[in-house]
Design goal:
With 145 residues, the protein is of the alpha+beta class. Helices cover 32% and strands 22% of the residues. The chain has one domain. The chain is built from six helices and four strands. A hairpin with a 5-residue loop joins strand 2 and strand 3. The longest helix has 10 residues. The model has no long low-confidence stretch (mean pLDDT 85).
Length: 145
């Protein structure tokens, strides 16, 4: 990635999505992810799958071996390897999993925010904090109000 590419990059986030042991990933969310990519809302930088066996050992799973159904071409996501996500990151994600569960680890650029972020960087501004409010907290606040 060139310096010019980095100057134009939007904020980059990651998600670790756990799938219960009795309900492995089925690919039903992939069309929605694909739609976000197609509309330019996000760009998938890395997508990896891991599985924690009953003994607690972590194994990487190739996206082609996940066994997704449906019409989406998973090779579009299999090629998403920016290098931002490494083995240590996969291990860290796996530590959050319950035994027997699988997870998708997704690293993505928020392309919708790229022009805004680039303008701020050109002005010397930098992001010093970020966060996300969990849905449960929002619902609790709304119920209390």
């Amino acid at each position: 990635m060139s310096e010019t590419d980095i100057d134009l990059l939007g904020p980059v986030d990651y998600l670790v999505i756990e799938f219960p042991a009795d309900r492995p990933p089925d690919g039903s969310a992939l069309p929605l992810l694909f739609d976000l990519v197609e509309r330019g809302v996000i760009r998938v930088l890395d997508l990896a799958f891991v599985h924690k066996d009953a003994a607690g050992s972590l194994v990487g799973v190739d996206i082609a071996d996940v066994g997704f159904g449906g019409d989406i071409d998973i090779t579009l996501f299999a090629e998403a390897e920016s290098g931002l996500l490494d083995d240590d990151d996969r291990l860290e994600a796996g530590r959050a999993l319950e035994p027997g569960c699988s997870a998708a680890v997704l690293v993505y650029e928020n392309r919708w925010a790229a022009p805004f972020a680039a303008a701020l960087r050109r002005n010397g501004a930098e992001l010093v904090a970020t966060g996300r409010i969990p849905m449960q907290s929002i619902l609790s606040s709304l119920d209390a109000g």
